[in-house]
Structure to design on (417 residues):
């Protein structure tokens, strides 16, 4: 469908510009990084490109899951109005590459040694048909707890190692009159938390079978039912006003001490950073109980489109800057994520960042690095959207039981394939 929609536009626009026109000294970037921490991180790249004489044309589309941004991107590309690059997630990059509208960064990649420094899990999504079509910006992982240390100290809490430990900790917060769990009732947030619940409940092998391989026996198993039951337990600890809340507002609840903990990807740390909070002093970062040793990841990528010749120099400058060691360190320190290349030292990273880098290395080497289904790295977008829809209906009571939930999940995924 995407190919039919876009391929005619790609052919029509590819010959519409002269290869001899003067280079356009502007980078047009479509993205959904609109929170304070995200904007601060993106500013690092803007400043790097400004030093090379490139103006930055921002095309921000709010919405933490990126769905609204991808709708805007589809309209732009269908009209032949290609951005220099767009923030994208894995399978979306591959969809546009299959539609024939992506550029070719292979020459730059060879020059910069991306093949050796970028993990194979990321190359699966940034290389199509032997050509580099996207520049990985970072590696995020979603199986984190973010905890307000002052509240933790007040209730006498300790790091939860098991799911039962986590429930006991949430009970302590509830007894102290603090909202135990900060959650935004949006489908991508709910499903992101459920990724961690499934890994915690079933373990690494089960997670891979169910969430990456989409094995039907696993999806409808008693272990998946128990995962939904565990999710239902967690939802009892959120406040009454959670529905529709943006993720960064949930993070702010933890930062301010209005809530004890948020289950969220490590982009949440960017909000703590922007609020000038320090790990170990103001907040704590732990892996979701029962998932230590595994990393559920996603990666923001800058998908590069087949822009006219006079815009390609700007695109190369953007790609080169994005995967430079200096930017990978400076950006990810602010963003909360870890570098998309493995040869960047952890010197400038805080304690949570150092743990994130070490955890990624261990998971990559040990075979416990798994794509987040909620975040577009476990399965193609249609499947991920079906998954998010079922999880959200369960959270909001439209699906009543775990038995019904697994039945609906299998059906939704089968229909989406």
């Amino acid at each position: 469908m995407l190919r039919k929609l876009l391929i005619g536009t790609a052919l029509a626009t590819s010959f519409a510009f002269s290869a001899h026109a003067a280079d356009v000294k502007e980078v047009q970037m479509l993205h959904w990084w609109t929170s304070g921490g995200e904007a601060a991180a993106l500013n690092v790249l803007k400043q790097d490109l400004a030093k090379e004489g490139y103006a930055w044309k921002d095309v921000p589309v709010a919405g933490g899951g990126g769905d609204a941004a991808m709708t805007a991107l589809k309209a732009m590309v269908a009209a032949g109005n290609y951005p220099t690059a767009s923030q994208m997630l894995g399978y979306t990059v591959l969809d546009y590459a299959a539609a024939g509208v992506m550029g070719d960064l292979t020459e730059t990649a060879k020059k910069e040694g991306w093949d050796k420094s970028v993990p194979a899990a990321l190359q699966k999504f940034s290389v199509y048909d032997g050509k580099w079509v996207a520049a990985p910006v970072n590696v995020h992982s979603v199986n984190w707890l973010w905890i307000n240390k002052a509240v933790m100290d007040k209730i006498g809490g300790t790091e939860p190692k098991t799911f039962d430990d986590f429930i006991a900790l949430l009970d302590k917060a509830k007894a102290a009159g603090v909202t135990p769990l900060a959650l935004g009732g949006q489908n991508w947030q709910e499903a992101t938390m459920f990724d961690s619940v499934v890994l915690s409940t079933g373990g690494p092998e089960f997670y891979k079978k169910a969430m990456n391989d989409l094995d039907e026996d696993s999806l409808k198993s008693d272990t998946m039912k128990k995962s939904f039951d565990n999710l239902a337990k967690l939802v009892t600890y959120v406040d009454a006003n959670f529905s529709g809340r943006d993720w960064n507002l949930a993070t702010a609840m933890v930062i301010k001490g209005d809530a004890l903990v948020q289950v969220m990807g490590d982009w949440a740390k960017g909000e703590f950073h922007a609020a000038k909070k320090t790990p170990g002093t103001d907040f704590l970062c732990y892996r979701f109980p029962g998932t230590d040793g595994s990393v559920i990841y996603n990666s923001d990528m800058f998908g590069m489109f087949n822009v006219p010749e006079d815009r390609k120099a700007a695109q190369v400058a953007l790609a080169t800057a994005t995967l430079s060691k200096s930017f990978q360190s400076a950006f990810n320190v602010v963003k909360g994520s870890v570098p998309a290349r493995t040869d960047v030292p952890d010197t400038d990273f805080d304690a949570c960042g150092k743990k994130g880098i070490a955890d990624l290395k261990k998971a990559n080497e040990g075979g416990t690095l798994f794509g987040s289904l909620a975040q577009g790295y476990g399965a193609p977008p249609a499947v991920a959207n079906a998954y998010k829809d079922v999880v959200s209906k369960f959270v909001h009571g439209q699906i009543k039981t775990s038995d019904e939930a697994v039945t609906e999940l299998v059906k939704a995924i089968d229909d989406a394939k």
User: Anything to note?
Assistant: Residues 13 and 187 are 36 Å apart (CA to CA). Residues 7-20 have pLDDT under 50 and may be disordered. The chain has two domains: 24-140+299-364, 141-297+368-416.
